[in-house]
Amino acid sequence: DVKVTQSSRYLVKRTGEKVFLECVQDMDHENMFWYRQDPGLGLRLIYFSYDVKMKEKGDIPEGYSVSREKKERFSLILESASTNQTSMYLCASSLWDRDYGYTFGSGTRLTVV
Amino acid sequence: AQSVTQPDIHITVSEGASLELRCNYSYGATPYLFWYVQSPGQGLQLLLKYFSGDTLVQGIKGFEAEFKRSQSSFNLRKPSVHWSDAAEYFCAVGHNMIKAAGNKLTFGGGTRVLVKP
């Protein structure tokens, strides 16, 4: 069964810490995405990557960065965590073709205290 | 800019009753439309998608959706709801169909469905 795996289900971090959220997919997908999910706001795109070492800003990139050194792994980095980054973070991947449904991970619920 | 609106934040429906979830989009070109479901504690699962052709689309779990260009809508329906359909549902529109730009989805705010016994 194909999978997108997020390394942590729950994380609690302190304000100012550098936080790494890891995502790995085993489907050889070109595209990978990081979304954050907040009640009433749905999913908002933070960053995405369409190839190794390539990255593009999404709609809300401020305070975040990403890394994609290998095709299967896409990391989201909070350089200096703040309380307004408390959220559910969802990773997704997809092939490049018109039939481009996403496969989502189960999410990481991050709390910044 | 593209946007997706789901006017209903919460819907409560009795088990066995029909369900309709509304979705309106704003997008300049031909839209690629999706419905996803998120069960509690889970990631999102694709229910169905529309790219072109027949405007009535069948999906998994007995769901269907109808694309109406004149109304910029893509409403999701199910004739008879089961307790296991309690979840949050997200409508999304796809854009940037250029390989170098990825295949981004813009999501609506979601509709949470509660099912009464």
Quick tags:
heterodimer, A: 113 residues, mainly beta, seven-stranded mixed sheet, four-stranded antiparallel sheet, B: 117 residues, 12 strands
Task: Kindly describe this structure.
Chain A is an all-beta fold and 113 residues long. Chain A is 0% helix and 53% strand. Chain A is built from no helices and 11 strands. Chain A has strands at 4-6, 10-13, 19-25, 31-38, 42-49, 56-57, 64-70, 73-78, 87-94, 103-104, 108-112. In chain A, strands 2, 4, 5, 6, 9, 10 and 11 form a 7-stranded mixed β-sheet that branches. Chain A has a 4-stranded antiparallel β-sheet with strand order 1-3-8-7, with no helix packed on it. In chain A, a hairpin with an 8-residue loop joins strand 9 (87-94) and strand 10. With 117 residues, chain B is mainly β. Chain B has no helices and 12 strands. Chain B has strands spanning 3-5, 10-14, 19-21, 24-26, 32-38, 44-50, 56-58, 64-68, 73-78, 87-98, 102-107, 111-116. In chain B, the strands form 3 sheets. In chain B, strands 2, 5, 6, 10, 11 and 12 form a 6-stranded mixed β-sheet that branches. Chain B has a 4-stranded antiparallel β-sheet with strand order 3-9-8-7, with no helix packed on it. In chain B, strand 5 (32-38) and strand 6 form a beta hairpin. Classes of the chains: A mainly beta (113), B mainly beta (117). Chain A binds chain B through residues 4, 31, 33, 35, 40-45, 48-50, 56, 58, 90, 92, 94, 96, 98-102, 104-107, and chain B through 4, 6, 9, 32, 34, 36, 41-46, 49, 51, 90, 92, 94, 97, 99-110.
